[in-house]
Amino acid sequence: MEEDYQPNSVQDIQDAYISFHRDEAYIYNMHISPYQEASIFNEEPTRPRKLLLNRREIRKLQSDVQKAGYTIIPLKVYLNDRGLMKIEIATAKGKKLHDKRQDIAKRDAQREMSRAMKYNR
């Protein structure tokens, strides 16, 4: 789960996810800004990046994804002393349609209450 780190880089894991290709784990849609002092031939900031996991970890994560329908997502990004990026990952299950509808209804109700309180002052 380590990736080369570039000093002064900005990471964005908002839409990132982890997928497998040929028994190797890759992280997709993770934005890492290019190194400022590098040449103009920088790598693409959102390119897929290979994660360093051992074989046992890869097999367990692959079985979770295939059997149970989980998605693997990054939670946090850490930087270590050797200039490598460590990524904390977790398996997550997506929401069902009725759960999404409930959350949207709650959010709309909360928004209505805050508007009513704002204008009643």
Structure description:
The chain has 121 residues and is an alpha+beta fold. The chain has one domain: Small Protein B, Chain: A (Beta Barrel), CATH 2.40.280.10. It has two helices and eight strands; from the N terminus they run E-E-E-E-E-E-H-E-E-H. A three-stranded antiparallel sheet has the order 1-8-7. Strands 3-4-6 form a three-stranded antiparallel sheet, with no helix packed on it. A two-stranded antiparallel sheet has the order 2-5.
The shape is flat
Q: What structural class do the secondary elements suggest?
A: alpha+beta
Q: What would CATH call the class?
A: Mainly Beta
CATH fold-level assignment: Small Protein B, Chain: A
Helix content: 25-40%
- Overall mean pLDDT stands at 83
Contiguous uncertain segments of 5+ residues: none
Q: Report the CATH architecture.
A: Beta Barrel
What is the CATH homologous superfamily assignment? Small protein B
Percent strand equals: 25-35%
Main sheet, how many strands, which sense, barrel? 3 strands, antiparallel
What is the total tally of β strands? 8
- CA(first)-CA(last) distance: 52 Å
Q: List the helices and strands in order.
A: EEEEEEHEEH
The total count of helices amounts to 2
Major sheet strand order: 1-8-7
Radius of gyration: 19 Å
